[in-house]
Design a protein that fits this description.
Blueprint lengths: L1 H12 L7 H4 L8 H18 L10 H20 L5 H35 L1
Length: 121
């Protein structure tokens, strides 16, 4: 597979405009996993945004907490590693923020249930 990858990169590299070469050759650029892994991770952000239409009673608080905390932890990590990966930082920050918002929705829902129970007793 590495031979196929190198040949493909070599062919694509010939058509890259000169002004895009610094981005192309960057240690976290499109020739590396440091670019493609965050690109696919945007799917988590899209899923989190699509969950905004989901009723709050259907949200999983443990899953939301796990995604939010991992988003913020990996955001910090992406600025410490070499090469610094701002693209990875941005996707992890968005994962954390969307899940934090979902967590707030779920928490408000559970609080409203507790308030209803307190009023009925």
């Amino acid at each position: 597979m590495s031979i196929i990858y190198r040949k493909t990169i070599g062919m694509v590299e010939k058509v890259i405009p000169k002004k895009c070469l610094p981005f192309w050759n960057h240690p976290a650029g499109p020739k590396t996993v440091f670019f493609w892994a965050p690109s696919f991770k945007w799917g988590l952000v899209i899923a989190g945004i699509s969950d905004l239409t989901r009723p709050a009673d259907k949200l999983s608080m443990p899953q939301t907490i796990a995604l939010a905390s991992s988003g913020f932890i990996w955001s910090r990590y992406s600025l410490i590693i070499i090469p610094k990966n701002v693209y990875l930082f941005s996707v992890n920050l968005f994962v954390g923020v969307t899940q934090l918002y979902q967590l707030a929705r779920a928490f408000r829902y559970h609080q409203s249930l507790k308030d209803k129970d307190a009023k009925t007793t």
